[in-house]
Every structure is written in C-alpha cells, then in structure tokens.
Design goal:
- The chain is of the alpha/beta class.
- The protein has helices spanning 193-198, 203-217, 223-233, 241-249; strands at 7-8, 13-14, 19-20, 25-26, 30-32, 37-38, 43-44, 47-50, 55-56, 61-64, 77-80, 85-86, 91-93, 102-105, 110-111, 116-117, 122-123, 128-129, 134-135, 140-141, 146-147, 152-153, 158-159, 164-165, 170-171, 179-182, 187-191.
- The strands form three sheets. Strands 3-6-9-12-15-18-21-24-26-27 form a ten-stranded mixed β-sheet.
- A hairpin with a 4-residue loop joins strand 26 (179-182) and strand 27 (187-191).
- The longest helix has 15 residues, at 203-217.
- The termini are far apart.
Amino acid sequence: MIHQTAIVHPGARLAEGVQVGAYSVIGEHVEIAEGTTVGPHVVIEGHTRIGRNNRIFQFCSIGSEPQDKKYAGEPTRLEIGDGNTIREFCSFSTGTAQDAGVTRVGNDNWIMAYVHVAHDCVVGDHTIFANNATLAGHVTVGDWAILGGFTGVHQFVRVGAHSFCGVGTVLLQDLPPFVTVSGNPASPHGINSEGLKRRGFSSAGLAAIKRAYKTLYRSGLTLDEARRQIAEAAVSAPELQQFSDFIADSGRGIVR
C-alpha cells in the first residue's frame, strides 16, 4: 500500500492498510492510523499523529514547522482526528512552546484546496473550509462552522460553532455561534438559519436564537446589557447558553 517511490522513515508508525502515494515523504515522528490514504507528493513531518479514515490529497504539507519567528526547534505537535478530507496544497503547522504546543484538527472536517491552518489552532468537528481559507496562529474554530473561500482569520480569534463566513471575509474579532458574517472587516448579517435547520434545531430553538441575535445586534443595548438579557433567556432556551458563554468569554471583543 506504499508506492515504491515514496520515502517512509523507518521510525514512522503506519497502521496496516494505510496508503501512501508516489513521491510522498513520511517523517520519523509521524503516526498514521488505519484507513487513511495519503496522495502523491505529500510531505508529512514533525511530531504528527493522524487518525483513521482520512483522505489527504496531493501536494499537501502536513506537520511542518510553525511560521513563527520565535520557534526554536521545540518538539511541538500536530494532531488530526478521524474522517477528514484534506484537499490539494493544504498546509498544517505544528504548535509552539509559547502556547499548548499542539495544533489540533478534529473529526469529519471538509477542508478544500490551499487552506492554511497555522500553529496552535484548534479546529472542531464537521467544519467546512472553502478554498484558500486561512487561519493565523492560536485560532479556535467551533463545530459545524463554515469558512467561505479566501476567509482570513486573525490570530487569537475564536470562531463560534454553527457560524458562517461569506467569501472573502476578514475576521479581526470573535465570531459568536450561529451568526453569519461577511466583508472586510466582517459585519453581521443574521443567523445561519439553513445550517441550523439541517442540523435538527427545532423551530422553538431557531426562534430563540433569532431573538438573541436581535438583542445583540439590533436592540441598541450595550454589549453587557445584551449579554445579560441573553443569559436570562438561556434559562428557558438552552440553545442560547453557548451563545451567552461565548460572549462573556471573548478576549478580543466580538464582531458587532
């Protein structure tokens, strides 16, 4: 299952059935679980662990040194979960000693061509990154978030679960869960209603989220006043708890 032209270091740990395409290079500290396929001309290096049933397409760079001038060769890591599709020319970096030392990508993510995931990022499950979406260092992306093509996310920004970024969005501040944004810099344009319906949110839950969005963005309240109202509403609408918590925990401020 390993092409004769591929170079796999003897120290690499590849499960039975892993496929490695022509001219790919697998480094010493790489671990790949069963069912994962690595296309041709892929380089996987660093202290990198890749889970089961991933598809990594040609010309990707996985586990390379972080693009951080403070990096001094520390044995930082990259961890990728199960069932991800990683298309052509993507680049994922390992972490840095200044953070947790690990970049993490979860499960069942759909990552299109030319996506960059920088050092110390944490990507959840079931996300979609369209072509050329780029995460700077230390970014967190919640489950089911969708980043449109050419979206750029500033370092340390958090992208909330179930949110949606239109093509060419530039995120300089945290994006709350459920919210749709676009533009440079990003501005809000309602909630991700269609995505929430597809994921089984009830009519009552959707209505509560819409009311919370209006409280945050259209009521004229200060951020603290809006957050308090949303927190009170979350007592009877549990869907709003993560919305309220996200706003309260924001360190960079939110898109507003």
